[in-house]
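Handout, section 4.2: multi-component inputs.
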Amino acid sequence: MESFKGKAAICGLGITPMGRIYGHDSVWFAARAMRLALDDAGLTKDDIDGVLINSGITGELGLGLMMQLGFRNLRLYNEMNGAGSTASQMIQYAAMAVVHGMANHVICVFADAPLRENKSAGASYARGRGPRGMGTFETHYGLFGVNARYALAARRHMALYGTTQDQLGAIAVAERQWATMNPLAQMRDPMTLEDYHRSRWIIEPLHLLDCSLVSNGGVAVIVTTAERACSLKQPPVYIWGMGQGHPGNPNRAGADAEVSTGARIARDTAFRMAGISNEDLDFVELYDCYTYTVLVTLEDYGFCKKGEGGPFVADGKLGPGGSLPANTGGGQLSGYYMWGMTPVSEAVVQIRGQGGERQVPKHDLCLTTGNGGILNFHGCLVLGREAS
Amino acid sequence: MTTELISRPVPTPDEASAPYFEGARQGRLLLMRCGECGTLRFPARPLCEACWSDEVEWVPASGRGIIYTYGIMHQVYHPAFASLVPYAIVVVELEEGPRMISNLVGVANDQILVGMPVEVVFEEVGEGVYVPYFRPRAG
Ligand SMILES: [Zn+2]
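Output:
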């Protein structure tokens, strides 16, 4: 089969203002993000013949968007859901569609607006469980929300491999260093490892500063063929490889889904398609709902051995000036929480060389990942500045 | 402990989980076993994940296991837990294989270890509703 590498490209990116922006729903943010992406690419709404939608926790985006925003004669249209892996997945399906002629310009959009005035971020994001059955034991046991699930996973890694709180903190600190240079980031004040340790516990071993932000906002990305991308306004960001991994979790003795994720599966597919190995990557944009997610993802992509993620990140190599720049806009911990669109959007900015003060010196090749559920769903893209 | 727990959300059975609640009332921790391939499962759900059969029987577990992982909750998500934080949430890996979420009794938070041997103990938390917790046991 002919190689897929370099056949499709991201030609437009729109990022709305992020964070505590009130008075608008997700549809408003989606429209703003798509308008910005169209202007960025030099396209108009009429050029768009494919739309892929991903709603956040509010569920405000759906198939009604076509009518709400007046799209006509679409050749590709769906609302997709792979949780935090959806952004990667939307771009994958869009890339396949444009390469095979099903559509010319596919816009992939995520938007969410869970933050409400006078309500904490945590309360805005909490969702209850069903009122009957086995699930009611979890609320009785005091297990609420996703934070607890990731804390359980992180603790398992710490117990097996000796991973420390300092090492998780090093990830948060590195991302904050990047965020101080990102005008769009929600958390731009400098932060030390001491600040990290002083931040309140949510559920041990996770401090507040181990957890992603909550954001109102939207991001849209336009995918087209490499050929078309070359004639548009922005430097194309070429798709070299793409992969998914959804390992399942039998949740019984012998399973280790807490410390070994679908990234292993996705890596094989994507790196083979791209014809690359880890050393070829100049920087990475990794899904970081929690610090721990970054650590386990680095291991599963083979940047270090399983269990060695802690020492690997502890020397600051993920931060500015480090040997493996990671989450260079501050990620979801300090930048903005647009699910899988956070890593994708920053990858596009950096590959184009538009990172300003935070621009990484070498930006030819980037891995961007998305993770959903409790490390259940994984998607990735290998993005390049050149077509090959 | 029981008076404290009374205000926490009381588990409520549905059709699929009713035998589990009845087992707990009798002081037995029940697991579902596939009637066709014998695969054990927890929590209760209608189909076997291995063979997709809906044939099922309930079998008692030993009630022994080890702590697979745990977290110490500080955030209050529900008013009933305001006086209980920080409290431990544990995943217990039962001898029979399945893992279940629970709480611990009889052990301080800073004494909890992954791999610690534990055994089940039931407490009544509402009218006729018994809930399994775990306490340390000799390894
Ligand atoms: Zn079966």
